[in-house]
Amino acid sequence: MLQTLTERLFDDGDRTDLDPFALFEEWFALAQEAEPNDPHAMALATSDENGLPDVRMVLLNRRDTRGFCFFTNFESEKGRQLLANPQAAMVMHWKSLRRQVRMRGPVERVTEAEADEYFASRAKGSRIASATSRQSRPLASRQQMMDEVAALTAMIGDGDMPRPAHWSGFRIVPVSMEFWKDGEFRLHDRVRFTRHNTGAPWTSTRLYP
């Protein structure tokens, strides 16, 4: 009987041919079935110019063997932090599965074509909101924001809402990916995959919980 990738991950056999991206897909497919809300939610950690960490929840919007993408306002705090210091860490915790995946590595901007494609896939109201929001900056009142949204909505009318220049995406290109599975009496399973750079082969290590 063939083992699943997860069974191979946590047994004590050879893991040299295991691909952490393929493992992530196996876990993410389970999360999509089991999580009642937002299986693609992830905590994203960045740091400011003083090295002080910042963390917030964002959505994993795209992924492939290059890395894991999310989209944002580049003039927001996280946008400015990542443009100045292009490296980040993230964690996805699926409580229903009692599993989580952590990763960290350098960050790159997605292409203009990727940003355009994803922006066009969003609801028109969300595109208008992204265009009007001066994310992370002071707001006098909620009414001011709603008035700005209403004004742009009226101006656009039945026309299209193009992607604003300040809105695009980042891709985390992991050099570390860790898979954690809950175990009885806190005897959890942890395996970490690492590589020296984004083009190097992966190695894996089992860790104490």
Draw up the topology in text:
Layout (H helix, E strand, L loop, with lengths): L4 H6 L9 H15 L6 E7 L5 E7 L2 E3 L2 E7 L3 H8 L2 E8 L4 E11 L2 H10 L2 H9 L9 H15 L10 E6 L3 E6 L7 E6 L8 E4 L3
Antiparallel strand pairs: 1-2, 1-5, 3-4, 4-7, 5-6, 6-7, 6-8, 8-9, 9-10
Helix pairs in contact: 5-6
Describe the structure.
With 209 residues, the chain is α+β, with helices and mostly antiparallel strands. It has a single domain (5-112, 165-206), classed as Electron Transport, Fmn-binding Protein, Chain A (Pnp Oxidase, Chain A), CATH 2.30.110.10. Helix content is 30%, strand content 31%. It contains six helices and ten strands; from the N terminus they run ααββββαββαααββββ. It has helices at 5-10, 20-34, 77-84, 112-121, 124-132, 142-156, and strands spanning 41-47, 53-59, 62-64, 67-73, 87-94, 99-109, 167-172, 176-181, 189-194, 203-206. Strands 1, 2, 3, 4, 5, 6, 7, 8, 9 and 10 form a ten-stranded antiparallel beta sheet that branches. α5 crosses α6 (142-156). The radius of gyration is 20 Å and the shape is elongated.
